[in-house]
Amino acid sequence: MLKKFFGDTLTDLGHLEGDYRVSQLKSDISQSILYMIIVSVGGLAMLRVDAMLFRERSDLFLLIAASRVGYVLVTVVFGIILSRTTRVRVFDRVLFGWMLFTIVCLGLENFTRPPYYLATAIDILVPFAIYALSPLKLKYTVALAVGFTAGTIYVGYFHKSGVDPILMNDVTLVLVVVHLLGWISTLQIQTYRRKSFRAFIDEKDAKEMVAYLANIDPLTKSLTRRQFMNIAESEFRRFTRYRRPLSLLILDADLFKKINDTYGHHAGDLTLRSLSLVAMEQKRAQDTFGRLGGEEFALLMPETTLTQALVVAERIRKTWADSPVNLDGEPIHSTISVGVAEALETDQSFEDLLRRADRMLYKAKSYGRNRVAAN
To answer: How do residues 12-63 score in pLDDT, each as one tens digit?
Structure first.
């Protein structure tokens, strides 16, 4: 039930939170703790006023003082929890809990005031604090602030005696203005956060694009050798730990220099792009495909035995042989040779697997090209 309530009332992570809220979490925590300190110090400072108000009721003053100190201690606990929070949702729940606790305490304390006493400053500051701090969606923030003010006005009109009606009317008008200003301020804050969020996303997208360009071969759109090797070494460590099958294919375009010499480098580039596309169409989501250099590519296949890898290698070889490259209406036929190897328990590193696959590629070339060889 609580989970459903929080899910309905707290700000939707899909709008302004996610990575952006995480990046702003430390700042939000610091700001919230500062508000807690201000409220706590203000509450303790008011004890001097309470001492004058209740000078004839020392027992009541001691009760109020004890409750005020208790409130501060509970607030300290909330502050400690906030300072150790690393998740946005936990932060929102803790802050909401403290706000609700504060409002309840202030509401109860209102009934202890003398009949002629009206805590106007607090009644004005609390709604502002709600608008400024609330992690709730706007409609729930407004409802919380208006609810507090409605309770304050109700107590002032129906549970206080000796309060000047004109003063009470003026206070009510001021509170209405406070809520209008608070609502407008909240809209402005949310507008600012949306703009800040867009800037954050733009910056993140730019960084991701730079990272993408650094890891992707611009000609073939496959992974660069560096990125491929990083992933391959990670997969090999997983193989070493769990001993799950891991196979590697090395593909090389046959007589590629002849294509460049006969048709030009544009034809060579087109051939490499087409070969990369054919190979990537055959790979699974968990496989890794990259360009090792020149006309040589590699396909790393986790959870794949040598027999299974041979099937994939043969399918790629045959598909490529049956798919001539179209150069301005002229078909360019070419073939590939493929070397296949499976990781062994005796392999000390991914380089061992790579060398064996490379030897199989050389074997396929030496046997006449356009074929698959495996260890």
So the answer is: 444 445 566 677 788 888 888 888 888 888 778 877 777 776 776 777 778 8
In angstroms, rounded to a whole number, what is the distance separating the alpha carbons of residues 99 and 101? 5
Count of domains forming the chain: 2
Tokens of 196: 């800040």
SS percent in the chain: helix, strand, coil, step 5: 70, 10, 20
342 assigned to active site: no
Q: H or E stretch including 176?
A: helix 165-215
The reply to whether 112 and 153 lie within a common domain is yes
Report the relative pairing of strands 330-332 and 325-327 from DSSP bridges: antiparallel
Q: Are residues 157 and 289 in the same domain?
A: no
Helix 265-282 with 306-321: angle, nearest 10 deg = 140
| 247 lies in the same domain as 296 | yes
Whether the pTM exceeds 0.70: the reply is no
Active-site annotation holder among 17, 235, 295, 342: 295
End-to-end CA distance of the chain: 60
